[in-house]
């Protein structure tokens, strides 16, 4: 019979790997396994995002997002610097394009200050000095935002974990869970794994894995695709660092922004459209099972009723490039459709409650054997090292 592991982590995105990393430090000598269904680390959300180290500006004071983003961002800067991963503290501006957005900008400044984030309001002249091509009447300058490559962070974490003796299994999907005496038997596509405890970091499949484990998740995952365009190399100098719009407070996404990537590229996006499959990276990828689930879920129907107008706007900008370009030109008037080529999209795992509310904060649920991470959208990549510490603390008290 196979030996029983102490802790098995399902999901080799940045949250799962950061959890394993924290576990080997908090509970040295424990047998830890990471299961990842793809053949590489960070293949889904972690490998398809804006690469921004967020500062903690947007989140309600006292929320887990606010707590973990600020400290997590600093931990991420340190980790990247120590391990030679490309990272830059570029700073960012959040730009009001008209006087109607000034109250929301001021509220954002208050929120940032309450969260301990360094923020400063700047006028149109200073904005022009920093970002000469960006149009705005006023902006918030956030010097501690920056950029990295979260997939590279995953590869580094996996290297460290391998050296510390963690059993790392890619190409291994969890398909069934059963109780066995004091522990669990996890059936995977490459054999059985026995474990005393398990952590669900399955991202877009988080609710499905919780159900496999016998839990009733308080929220379901609704996949929201974020589509990007990339500027042609000759137009990369339109933006120096990171430029964000003032976000819609009713919507948990930050709006189409202009992002300098660590490889020097300039991305425009992401929008937010419902994906037609959990891993629906384009409109051609759809799953009948997912669509049936969406149609039959009262929470998702309530959500559609609430956001249909915003949703239609996002879908039309997804399908009709000139509409996307027109929206981006609010910030960057010189941008032309011919400057932009489609880049890879990402799909966000956004949890939705049974009454159709988008879960705003991180959501973690525990039972006797499991810790389930059921909502870890942005800024979870930024915050991953602290989220991992938090989950490891929850687990180590059980295996001590
Ligand atoms: C478009 C977009 C832009 C974003 N921008 C930013 C940003 O700029 N900054 C930021 O901080 N955050 C950003 N985010 C959010 C960030 O990417 C996520 O919060 C973070 O990557 C979540 O990591 P994760 O490990 O929870 O999920 P994932 O990276 O999705 O990892 C989950 C893993 O679980 C695996 N898995 C699922 N089911 C199973 C199973 N049954 N068995 C085994 N393995 C399984 C999957 O294959 C996957 O690799 C963005 C996200 C998107 C989509």
From TrEMBL:
<dbReference type="InterPro" id="IPR006076">
    <property type="entry name" value="FAD-dep_OxRdtase"/>
</dbReference>
<dbReference type="InterPro" id="IPR036188">
    <property type="entry name" value="FAD/NAD-bd_sf"/>
</dbReference>
<keyword id="KW-0285">Flavoprotein</keyword>
<dbReference type="Pfam" id="PF01266">
    <property type="entry name" value="DAO"/>
</dbReference>
<feature type="domain" description="FAD dependent oxidoreductase">
    <location>
        <begin position="6"/>
        <end position="392"/>
    </location>
</feature>
<keyword id="KW-0274">FAD</keyword>
<dbReference type="GO" id="GO:0016491">
    <property type="term" value="F:oxidoreductase activity"/>
</dbReference>
<comment type="similarity">
    <text>Belongs to the L2HGDH family.</text>
</comment>
<protein>
    <submittedName>
        <fullName>L-2-hydroxyglutarate oxidase</fullName>
        <ecNumber>1.1.3.-</ecNumber>
    </submittedName>
</protein>
<keyword id="KW-0560">Oxidoreductase</keyword>
């Amino acid at each position: 019979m196979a030996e029983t592991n102490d802790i098995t982590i399902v999901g080799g995105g940045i949250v799962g790997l950061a959890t394993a990393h924290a576990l080997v430090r908090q509970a040295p000598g424990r047998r830890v396994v990471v299961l990842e269904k793809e053949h590489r680390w960070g293949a889904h959300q972690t490998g398809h995002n804006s690469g921004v180290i967020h500062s903690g500006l947007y989140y309600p004071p006292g929320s887990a997002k606010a707590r973990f983003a600020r400290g997590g961002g600093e931990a991420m800067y340190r980790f990247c610097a120590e391990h030679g991963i490309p990272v830059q503290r570029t700073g960012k501006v959040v730009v009001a394009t008209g006087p109607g957005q000034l109250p929301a900008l001021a509220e954002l400044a208050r929120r940032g200050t309450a969260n301990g984030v360094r923020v400063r309001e700047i006028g149109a002249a200073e904005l022009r000095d920093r970002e000469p091509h960006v149009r705005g009447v006023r902006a918030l300058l956030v010097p501690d935002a920056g950029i990295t490559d979260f997939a590279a962070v995953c590869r580094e974490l996996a290297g460290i974990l391998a050296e510390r003796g963690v059993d790392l299994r890619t190409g291994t999907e969890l398909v069934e869970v059963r109780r066995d005496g004091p522990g669990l038997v996890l059936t995977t596509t490459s054999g059985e794994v026995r474990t005393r405890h398990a952590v669900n970091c399955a991202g877009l499949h988080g609710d499905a894995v919780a159900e496999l484990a016998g839990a009733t998740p308080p929220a379901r995952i609704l996949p929201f695709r974020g589509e990007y365009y990339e500027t042609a190399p000759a137009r990369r100098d339109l933006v120096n660092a990171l430029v964000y719009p003032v976000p819609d407070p009713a919507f948990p996404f930050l709006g189409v922004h202009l992002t300098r990537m660590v490889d020097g590229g300039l991305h425009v996006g992401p929008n937010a459209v419902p994906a037609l499959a959990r891993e629906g990276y384009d409109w051609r990828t759809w799953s009948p099972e997912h669509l049936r689930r969406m149609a039959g879920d009262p929470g998702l129907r309530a959500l559609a009723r609430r956001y249909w107008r915003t949703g239609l706007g996002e879908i039309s900008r997804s399908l009709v490039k000139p509409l996307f370009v027109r929206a981006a030109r609010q910030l960057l008037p010189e941008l032309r459709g011919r400057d932009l080529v489609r880049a890879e999209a990402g799909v966000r795992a956004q949890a939705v409650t049974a009454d159709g509310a988008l879960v705003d904060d991180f959501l973690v649920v525990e039972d006797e054997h499991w810790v389930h991470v059921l909502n870890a959208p942005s800024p979870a990549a930024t915050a991953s090292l602290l989220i991992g510490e938090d989950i490891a603390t929850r687990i180590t008290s059980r295996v001590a």
